[in-house]
């Protein structure tokens, strides 16, 4: 008897972050969203666009970011693989960590799972990032962190004043 994978044929609610700071940032994000949809990803909600300074080098071009709520029956590693393929097809090149990029897609929360098996779920730094928390709050005001169980408002209030005031909704 073959044991079915627990994710197989299950529809999972997932939150993704998409960012871009090279080229036509709006177009890059919209193309990424279209490519996700073309690969059996149902986009339930999309946040507004948010602009932030590049980190750690604020001299790099500013980032444009969105957060999506999606449904998928892809398993976490398959979804990660799809995200990496989309990034590459949009022109992302292998480069130094935190360097400018055409497209960056991160899995923030995959069905409230806590995993560290080839993929870290939830995203290990999502609770520290204004460009994730503020757009996530826009589309999911009741969201709680899968590990800490902190409500999203609590996480936003833990951000520095500079982090809260430096992000700009477009």
Lay out the secondary structure.
Layout: E1 12-20, H1 25-37, E2 42-46, E3 50-52, E4 63-72, H2 76-89, E5 104-110, E6 115-116, E7 120-121, H3 130-139, H4 152-157, H5 161-165, E8 168-169
Antiparallel strand pairs: 1-4, 1-5, 2-4, 3-4, 3-8, 6-7
Please characterize this protein's 3D structure:
The protein is α+β, with helices and mostly antiparallel strands and 170 residues long. It has one domain (12-169): Alpha-Beta Plaits (2-Layer Sandwich), CATH 3.30.70. It is 28% helix and 24% strand. It has 5 helices and 8 strands, in the order E-H-E-E-E-H-E-E-E-H-H-H-E. The protein has helices spanning 25-37, 76-89, 130-139, 152-157, 161-165; strands spanning 12-20, 42-46, 50-52, 63-72, 104-110, 115-116, 120-121, 168-169. The strands form 2 sheets. Strands 1, 2, 3, 4, 5 and 8 form a 6-stranded antiparallel beta sheet that branches. It has a two-stranded antiparallel ribbon with strand order 6-7. Strand 6 (115-116) and strand 7 (120-121) form a beta hairpin.
Beta-strand percentage?
15-25%
Assign a percent range to the helix content: 25-40%
How many structural domains can be distinguished in the coordinates?
1
Question: Averaged pLDDT, please?
Answer: 92
Q: How many strands appear in the DSSP assignment?
A: 8
Calculate Rg over CA atoms.
16 Å
CATH superfamily grouping: 7,8-Dihydro-6-hydroxymethylpterin-pyrophosphokinase HPPK
Please name the CATH architecture. Answer: 2-Layer Sandwich
Low-confidence stretches: none
Described by the principal axes of the CA atoms, the overall outline is globular
* Termini Cα gap: 53 Å
CATH class: Alpha Beta
The SS-based structural class is alpha+beta
| Oligomerization state | single chain
Stated plainly, the CATH topology is called Alpha-Beta Plaits
What's the story with the biggest beta sheet?
6 strands, antiparallel
Number of helices: 5
Order of helices and strands: EHEEEHEEEHHHE
């Amino acid at each position: 008897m073959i044991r079915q994978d627990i994710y197989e044929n299950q529809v999972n609610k997932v939150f993704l972050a998409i960012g871009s700071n090279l080229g036509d940032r709006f177009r890059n994000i919209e193309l990424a969203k279209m490519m996700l949809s073309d690969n059996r990803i149902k986009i339930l909600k999309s946040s507004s666009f948010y602009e932030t300074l590049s980190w750690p080098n604020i001299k790099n071009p500013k980032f444009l970011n969105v957060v999506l709520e999606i449904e998928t029956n892809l398993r976490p590693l398959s979804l990660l693989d799809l995200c990496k393929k989309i990034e590459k097809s949009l022109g992302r090149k292998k480069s130094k960590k935190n360097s400018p990029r055409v497209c960056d897609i991160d899995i923030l929360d995959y069905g409230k799972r806590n995993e560290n098996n080839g993929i870290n779920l939830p995203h290990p730094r999502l609770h520290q990032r204004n460009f994730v928390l503020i757009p996530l709050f826009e589309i999911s005001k009741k969201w709680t962190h899968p590990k800490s169980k902190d409500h999203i408002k609590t996480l936003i209030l833990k951000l520095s004043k500079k982090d809260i005031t430096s992000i700009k909704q477009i």
